[in-house]
Amino acid sequence: MSNNSLFVALLSISVSWAQSKKEVKKYDLITATETITEVVDGKEVTRNDSYKKFDKDGNVIEEVKYDNYGKVEERIVRLFDKFENKTQEITFDASNRQLKREVYKYNELGEKVEESEFNSKNQLVSRSVFTNDRRGLKSEKKTYDGKGKLTQTKKYRYDD
């Protein structure tokens, strides 16, 4: 295999790594796009790698992931409540068809108490219910299938 056919160097990324929520708010960023420039067959080729759109609170409300050719692979849309808790995450394929939707519920203390996943037809696939201890730490997660049958119980223990 010749050097010309190898991806030789990663030359640039337009946005360095993931921006923190603090930086997004500080600089009033609206979007961030990452591109990759590589040397392919002796020529520099630049392609999109990812795109993120932020709300005024610095939350990522839309994310686009690209394949190795710069074509859209998937798009994720996130919705947040007034307390900045993620309430929904919807994943779309390259043709903008919904692949799945996740819904999150919180208690009055802002602790996540439920997470549900729906398929492309908006049918419930799984539901997880979280229990927190008196300190607000997650103590248990029970996962149910789409028909309500318990499939897993996960317990959390913390050492003080």
Task: Quickly list its features.
160 residues; mainly beta; globular; disordered N terminus; eleven-stranded antiparallel β-sheet
Distance between the termini: 56 Å
How many DSSP H or I helices? 1
What percentage of the residues does DSSP assign to strands (E)? over 45%
Main beta sheet strand tally, sense and closure: 11 strands, antiparallel
Order of helices and strands: EHEEEEEEEEEE
The number of E-state strands comes to 11
Going across the biggest sheet, name each strand in turn.
1-2-3-4-5-6-7-8-9-10-11
Q: What is the typical, i.e. mean, pLDDT?
A: 89
Q: Could you say which structural class the secondary elements and strand pairing correspond to?
A: mainly beta
Uncertain runs: 1-17
Rg from Cα:
20 Å
The coarse silhouette is globular
Q: Which percent bin holds the helix content? A: under 10%
Please describe what this structure looks like:
The chain is mainly beta. It has 1 helix and 11 strands, in the order βαββββββββββ. An 11-stranded antiparallel β-sheet has the order 1-2-3-4-5-6-7-8-9-10-11, with no helix packed on it. The longest helix is centred in the N-terminal third of the chain and has 6 residues, at 21-26. The radius of gyration is 20 Å and the shape is globular. Residues 1-17 have low confidence and may be disordered.
Summarize the model shown.
By secondary structure, this protein is mainly beta. The chain contains 1 helix and 11 strands; from the N terminus they run βαββββββββββ.
